[in-house]
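Researcher: Structure for this, please.
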Amino acid sequence: MPPTDGSTPNTVTAELEHVRRYWANMKSNSPVYTFLLGDINIFSAIKGQIIAYLKVLPVHLNSKKTLHGVVSSCIMDWAGGMAIASTGLDNTGLSTDIHTTFVSTAKEGDLLEIEGKASKVGASLAFTTIEIRHAGDRENVIAHGIHTKYIKG
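Model: Predicted structure, token format:
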């Protein structure tokens, strides 16, 4: 069962420590990430993969009172970068392509599980896949996507 209380995983890996440090630095320099994702809990990280949780708050909702597409797209951007950071990089680059497919939705109070995976981190480009789902239900996908970043330099 996923954490609902901001708890931490049983094993704190070097990758998790690195990703959390990277996120703390990034968050302090990004008003939009602070606004939308300030309460995100990076729960685990291994090389090339992160798992995070975010509770859906009123600020995340559209006029229909469901998860706004811009929030899902922001999560795609964020999780792709964090997956790249989990490989040890200190610079996660510039986005060249983000694609989000909206499958379902969430409502206020729902807990989202976010999984980001770095499929390939090369010399110039990094390719990631991201899935947002209802926590505790791997089959209940809200959105999935791909994120490509230029990382050279």
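Researcher: Any notable elements?
Model: Residues 69-85 form the longest helix (17 residues). The chain has a mean pLDDT of 93.
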